[in-house]
Design goal:
about 550 residues, alpha/beta, Luciferase, domain 3, GMP Synthetase, Chain A, domain 3, nine-stranded mixed sheet, seven-stranded mixed sheet, 15 helices, 27 strands, binds adenosine-5'-diphosphate, Long-chain fatty acid--CoA ligase, ligase activity, forming carbon-sulfur bonds
Length: about 550
């Protein structure tokens, strides 16, 4: 067989030529949608690559993006790795301190920034010593960014006048294509580098029928930000399959999302559960919207409540499919698509699991003593994972603890059944240890989220003199609800072991979220330790 390297340039060439008429459709502030074909994306990516070369980007230097989901970001996804440089997607929701740390750690040289995020970049730029060029999209005033020794230029001016074809270099498929830092839900952000090969193989897995089953007849609504684990691979999958990309820009609230779904009729979408929960509430209180174009909604990043999946399916004809992964796993590792022959409650039980590993990904369970435990649906251990798109190291970090004999230790605890369906019971760092036994915060949360008066529920472990730790349930109730903690406790009764039932409750207006929309338990634990949560003791 020919030794052809699997690179992003190959994905780009395929998308721009074979699927030349597929489109990137980007939502505009006035509600309209601007479109560019994949052929145009190909031409503009070539121009961007020439412009980056001309401003001095060589070898595997890092080009960062600080952008929302739009066509220019797709062009950066195509041009930067394909020219041999490394794409580093920065997360604008991080704190300025985290941004400075990450951009310097990655040694970013150029930043492509969305005009609306220019003030955020301006605030940290003086501390980004290696950045020599800033490219700004959206035609905004460049003056606030300007300083000595720095080139600041508008995106269209930057790429304008350059050739619309680029001789993409022959790259080693094992070289780095992109890098991403974990969102730091449980600790400091760590950098992961994706190779060309891992990106290519992961995109194929995402497209596969047992993955997200993407075809040229699809339109993918990528709500998951392009800075969150590569937008879960949706961008390259679209280029491979010839699916349109529907991009919501920075308009990630339920109302514009529902309008976008109704008008652009995407068939596939991806976002974390908190987004879908907002969308559901919006749909329920504003009847009349048709979102039934969505055939498959990929949802993951944290556990997906069963009632959310059922409500979407039964009321709106939309199938939410749970997937599990991490920044470290590119991210697609497992997906919950039960065999068609499994029906009824068993079907739903499998849908509520984190799914089966996709081909290419292997899982094993390891107990506290380092022994492998059986996949019997009962034994619990830490999930370890390996495969061609699973990271084998962290950038500039000899964290050997995270690896075990060629496997990545995920920090996720759970069980695997005989059919290889995974159920996560917790993150190791969120697990509640009470009287020497584990209480699954995830299981309590999912049950509470199913109560009709509960809008959001999260459960954290708090210190307890007698039991070492006990669960504290932090609840957001629906407007007008008068539900009490003891009613919620009664609701849990019989569904979990008696000693799991929380006696500590706290009602809040909203649960704090991390930069990628997960419940921020680290912050909640800190607030509790500082005495900032009004706890009701039953
Ligand atoms: P961070 O670790 O900072 O949150 P990631 O977005 O990479 O950054 O998070 C990966 C983690 O998210 C996984 O290790 C797991 O704990 C959690 N996760 C992802 N998908 C699911 C899911 N379907 N159900 C439960 N937890 C999930």
């Amino acid at each position: 067989m020919m030794n052809v390297q699997l690179t992003t340039a190959a994905i780009l060439r395929h998308g721009a030529r074979v699927h030349a008429t597929a489109r990137v459709r980007t939502l505009q502030p006035d509600g309209s949608v601007r479109t560019g074909t994949f052929a145009e994306v190909g031409r503009r990516s070539a121009q961007l690559a020439h412009a980056l070369r001309a401003c001095g980007v060589v070898g595997d230097e890092r080009v960062a993006t600080l952008m929302w989901n739009n066509q220019e970001h797709v062009e950066a996804y195509c041009a930067v790795p394909s020219m041999g440089a490394v794409l580093h997607t920065l997360n604008p929701r991080l704190t300025p301190e985290q941004l400075v740390y990450i951009a310097n750690h990655a040694d970013d040289r150029v930043v492509i920034v969305d005009g609306t995020l220019a003030p955020l970049l301006a605030a940290v730029l003086p501390q980004l010593a290696e950045v020599h060029t800033v490219v700004v999209t959206g035609g905004v005033d460049l003056a606030p960014l300007e300083r000595d020794g720095l080139t600041v230029v508008g995106y269209d001016d930057f790429i304008g006048g350059h050739l619309e074809t680029f001789e993409w270099p022959e790259l080693d498929e094992l070289s780095a294509a992109a890098m991403c830092y974990t969102s730091g839900t449980t600790g400091n952000p760590k950098g992961v580098a994706y190779s060309h090969r891992s990106t290519y193989l992961h995109s194929m897995a995402a497209c596969a029928a047992d993955g997200l089953s993407v075809t040229g007849d699809d339109a993918i609504l990528a709500i998951v930000p392009m800075f969150h684990a590569n937008a879960w691979g949706l961008v390259y999958a679209a280029l491979m399959a010839g699916a349109d990309l529907v991009m919501p820009e920075r308009f990630l609230q339920a109302e514009p999302l529902v309008r976008l779904i109704s008008s652009e009729r995407p068939t596939i979408a991806g976002a974390v559960p908190t987004i879908w929960s907002d969308v559901l509430n919006h749909l329920d209180s504003n009847p009349g919207h048709d979102i039934s174009s969505l055939g498959l909604v990929a949802c993951g990043g944290s556990a997906v409540p069963l009632h959310l999946m059922k409500a979407f399916q039964e009321k709106y004809g939309v199938q939410i499919v749970q997937a599990w992964g991490m920044t470290e796993t590119s991210p697609l590792a497992a997906i919950a698509r039960p065999p068609a022959a499994v029906e009824g409650e068993e079907h739903w039980a499998l849908r509520a699991s984190q799914g089966r590993p996709v081909a290419g990904v292997e899982l094993r369970l390891i107990d506290d003593d380092g022994n492998e435990v059986p996949h019997d649906g009962k034994s619990v251990g830490e999930i370890q994972v390996r495969g061609p798109w699973i990271t084998g190291s962290y950038i500039g970090d000899e964290d050997a603890e995270k690896f075990d004999d060629g496997w990545l230790r995920t920090g996720d605890v759970g069980r695997i059944d005989e059919r290889s369906f995974v159920t996560l019971t917790d993150r190791a760092k969120d697990v509640i240890k009470s009287g020497g036994e584990w209480i699954s915060s995830v299981e309590l949360e999912l049950l509470l989220a199913g109560h009709p008066d509960v809008l959001e529920a999260t459960v954290i472990g708090v210190p307890d003199e007698k039991w070492q730790e006990r669960p504290l349930a932090v609840i957001v109730v629906r407007d007008g609800s008068e539900v009490t903690p003891s009613q919620l406790r009664d609701f849990l009764e019989g569904k979990v072991a008696k000693w799991w039932l929380p006696e500590r409750w706290c009602f809040v207006p909203d649960v704090p979220k991390t930069s990628v929309g997960k419940f921020d338990k680290k912050l909640l634990r800190a607030r509790h330790a500082d005495g900032d949560l009004a706890v009701i003791d039953l």
